[in-house]
Amino acid sequence: MANYRRLWLLLLVVLGITFAILGYFGREVYRTAPPIPAQVVTENGTLLTTHDGILDGQTAWQSVGGMQLGSVWGHGAYQAPDWTADWLHRELVAWLELAAQDEFGTAYANLEGEQQAMLQHRLKQEYRSNSYDAEADVLVLSERRAQAMADTAAYYDKLFSDDPALRGTRQSFAMKENTLPSAERRADMNNFFFWTAWAAATERPDSNATYTNNWPHEPLIDNKPTAENIVWSIASVVLLIAGVGGLVWAWSFLRKEDEAAPEPPVKDPLTTFTLTASQKALGKYVFLVVALFTFQVLLGGATAHYTVEGQHFYGIELSKWFPYTLLRTWHIQSALFWIATGFLAAGLFLAPIINSGKDPKYQALGVNVLFWALVAVVVGSFVGNYLAIAQIMPASLNFWLGHQGYEYVDLGRLWQIGKFTGIVLWLVLMLRGVVPALRQPGDRHLLALLTASCAAIGLFYGAGFFYGERTHISVMEYWRWWIVHLWVEGFFEVFATTALAFIFCSMGLVSRRAATTASLASASLFMLGGIPGTFHHLYFSGTTTPVMAVGATFSALEVVPLVVLGYEAWENWRLKNSAPWMENVRWPLMFFVAVAFWNMLGAGVLGFMINPPVALYYIQGLNTTPTHAHAALFGVYGFLALGFALLVLRYIRPNLVFSESLMKTAFWWMNGGLALMLFTSVLPVGVIQFVASASEGLWYARSESFMQQGLLQTLRWVRTFGDVVFIVGALAVTWQVIIGLRQPAGGPLPHTIEPQECDVPELMSK
């Protein structure tokens, strides 16, 4: 017990310190966010835009899909340009052309080297100088810059309409025709794009770095990594090496000898009681997991094909009804829905086991209500996404019912509230089974940690309500990453670790002490780097150097526990041979082995590839990011959710025998397809873009001329092979689940079993 107390104290100290850091520097995000001026005027007093005009533009951008169509400040989709980098470069080039005509009466390209150098010097001086008057809350721009803005805005106005002159460009960017029909809203959106570019080019007061820490790379105005960027990048690498070394030493010298594994019971303890009504109701959850999974996979194939044909799907002009932006939105949202459903199903399956094999009163009703609430949120949010992107939904309703415009939280606010309500209902259902067990005498530390992780999952999704439709984008990014990073990559990780430990403990395969100790230690390791590591997504989102320092430092520590996950994979692998009846759950265990592998490779190696500030400076917004995202989101949480679904299916259909041919196809083809997709297509494209970004600038790495060159087109076609392999594996696991669900539910009556060392009170005492 004393050892547990030390581990609990360590976890509480880690949580206290890291949340204090996250909160303190979160306040700095609010305080130092780039200003949105009350007025933007020319030197002659002509009004160009206002604070409200810029925010109106932000809402217009959200309504067309926001981050699902190109990106802003590097966050979003990858086929269309990063609008910040693209606008900035186009405006700079327009300024140079205007200056060349004014000063020398000819085109910029016709000037001699010294003349071009002189104009570039003036360009840098004008664009990097901060002409914002904080007292008056007014931004003053030169007449020449105002004209450069107007020239750039004219191009964007044509691009987002149905102007035939730019139809080919829209195809290259996978934009549907007449993306934003309203000319007034296009003008507003242009003001928002201008403001993001202004923040990226303008130095903070008393600083030689811009509001976005000199991002994006733009040689025309000397936007390049700051000295602090390089220093903290080196520091992050040193900390990673030190952290890995420290973990190995601690593992070698501080841990006690491995205790002998308990003698496995003759029969699987989880099959020795009659299924409860709430557990029988979980069949539809498992079906929803694979249904949304299949839907998501097919959408992924279609979305990937849009990067080749732009507006067509093998000759069919699909973008008229289902444009790239919509399919990408559904692709990401359906992934979050089915992965979350897999986790919810695992928790709901455990609740009666924890409660001595019995359902609390009305538990089955709650499980059924939660399911249909999830279905309503899925359908409602998808319909809202469609109506928003089709520009059918009134602008005033878009944020609430349509499309928030922010990647991973695209669903309208009403559906977001519905999702949060559903997660809270799940938490209540879990607590109804857990609380009575917590009151039982004995060691309940593992159960307490599982309960805490359930509470965190239930409540921390609420961070998404701390921003609104017109919230400053820097502040919005802070809270958005609370969900994408902290909620998903942090607390889901702790829940997964603890739930698996509890399941293996309940099976009698792992001792209670070993499961509890490992779970508490892992939770501290995950949270130490994971909570402040949230800031590694915010290096260039209008934040200051201290945020970069914290993000770089702690995100390096995030990787430390991931590089030694080979041991966890081995532990899961060897469990399949621990007892003859473990053959029944061999395939779910194989999925858990895949989780450990992709956690190491996808979250660890590919994650750290884009974590140091100097690396992310050049590759943020390139295809290196989806390489990490696919390997980590599906490779880790996807395989984990499918493993949970298969495990639940096996127990709610006791007579099910997994088909070897189907499961081998599912497991190996999904793993192989994911690897093929990443390493023959997505990553090579990202590496080639990285070279272009470092040499010419981000605008070039995302430009039409660069992305449509033959080699990159071929590499995007090559992705089809990996996608097809993966789809075959996905269909195999879906068909296995459908076959399993067609079998009758039920199970044997309880009978006497050997007591096990775990938190299943009455069941274990029979």
Automatic annotation (TrEMBL):
This is Nitric-oxide reductase large subunit. It comes from the Bacteria. The keyword Cell wall biogenesis/degradation does not apply. The chain crosses the membrane at residues 7-26, 230-254, 285-308, 335-357, 369-393, 413-434, 446-467, 479-505, 517-535, 547-567, 587-610, 630-652, 673-701, 721-741. Residues 37-217 form the Nitric oxide reductase subunit B cytochrome c-like domain. Keywords: Membrane, Transmembrane, Transmembrane helix.
